[in-house]
């Protein structure tokens, strides 16, 4: 089933929509606002035909967007990635593995059911609100610890955050930031830890899902849109890496929480109108 080709009648993805979603994906991935939630909600709110596409085609397109983002992050953060690789020791390996494991196991077991049942506008809005509350409450914790003090318990807390982020609307960045702040890391070090544990899982998921997509192939009429979306995601991520520095400064997570709740309110209003 997983390696069956995508159907030719899966639907058309307009080039302009693919580019717009690619441009949106970069900054949405770098900020704690849920890139997956935005990629679903923005077309729905604008009444684009994206939601009418075959579900497997939409999933494949999101893989393409993540591939563009992952490539841009590896380039844009190459100095930071290089420093982390050169300083790799037992503690850091333990941090990466334990932060990766909960999300990896949960994704292997429940990814498809989660996507089917929790990928609707209503459930994404709920995820935005829950994630906002977690971020706001966690950011009230004292700033007492540095990233160098992170141990296996912190790694599991970050891993639990990444696992929770499999629910659309939660946000991987937001969940890991909340986990790190709850563990009393400073805002700057919480951001660094969030990036360090997120990049391996983004790259791993992109490679795994990209391999599946390569086996299945794409309908010919979607290839240009996929390529354009991937390039747009790459460009917007690379061009938005400065956002990391903005979030990393000693600033509250409250504005991001407020934005997420505002977006959820817009979705709720639209749902009430039918």
Explain how this protein is built.
The chain has 274 residues and is an all-alpha fold. Helix content is 74%, strand content 0%. The protein has helices spanning 15-30, 35-45, 55-76, 78-86, 90-118, 121-138, 152-164, 172-182, 187-216, 223-239, 242-248, 254-273. The longest helix is centred in the C-terminal third of the chain and has 30 residues, at 187-216. It is globular.
In short:
With 274 residues, this protein is an all-alpha fold.
From the structure provided, what is the oligomeric state, counting identical versus distinct chains? single chain
Sheet-strand content, in percent, reads under 5%
Distinct helical segment count = 12
Structural class: mainly alpha
Largest sheet: none
Task: Using the alpha-carbon principal axes, give the shape.
Answer: globular
Helical proportion, percent range: over 70%
- Which stretches are low in confidence, meaning pLDDT under 50 for 5 or more residues running? none
How confident is the prediction overall: mean pLDDT? Answer: 85
Radius of gyration: 18 Å
Count the strands? 0
Distance linking N and C termini: 34 Å
Q: Give the SSE string.
A: HHHHHHHHHHHH
């Amino acid at each position: 089933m997983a390696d069956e080709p995508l159907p030719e009648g899966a639907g058309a993805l307009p080039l302009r929509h693919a580019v717009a979603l690619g441009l949106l994906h970069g900054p949405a991935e770098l900020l704690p606002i849920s890139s997956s939630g935005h990629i679903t909600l923005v077309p729905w709110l604008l009444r684009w035909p994206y939601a009418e596409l075959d579900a497997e085609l939409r999933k494949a397109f999101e893989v393409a967007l993540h591939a563009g983002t992952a490539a841009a992050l590896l380039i844009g953060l190459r100095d930071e990635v290089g420093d982390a690789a050169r300083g790799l020791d037992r503690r850091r390996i333990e941090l990466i593995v334990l932060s990766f494991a909960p999300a990896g196991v949960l994704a292997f077991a429940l990814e498809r059911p989660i996507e089917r049942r929790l990928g609707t506008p209503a459930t994404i809005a709920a995820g935005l609100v829950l994630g906002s509350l977690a971020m706001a409450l966690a950011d009230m914790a004292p700033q007492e610890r540095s990233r160098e003090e992170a141990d296996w318990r912190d790694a599991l807390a970050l891993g639990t955050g990444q696992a929770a982020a499999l629910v659309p609307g939660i946000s991987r960045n937001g969940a890991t930031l909340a986990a790190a702040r709850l563990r009393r890391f400073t805002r700057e070090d919480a951001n660094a830890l969030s990036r360090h544990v997120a990049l391996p899982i983004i790259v791993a998921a992109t490679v795994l899902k990209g391999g599946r997509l390569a086996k299945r192939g794409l309908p010919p009429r979607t290839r240009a849109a996929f390529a354009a979306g991937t390039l747009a995601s790459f460009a917007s991520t690379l061009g938005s890496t400065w956002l990391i520095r903005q979030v990393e400064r000693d600033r509250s997570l409250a504005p991001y929480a407020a934005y997420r709740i505002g977006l959820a309110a817009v979705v709720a209003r639209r749902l009430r109108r039918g």
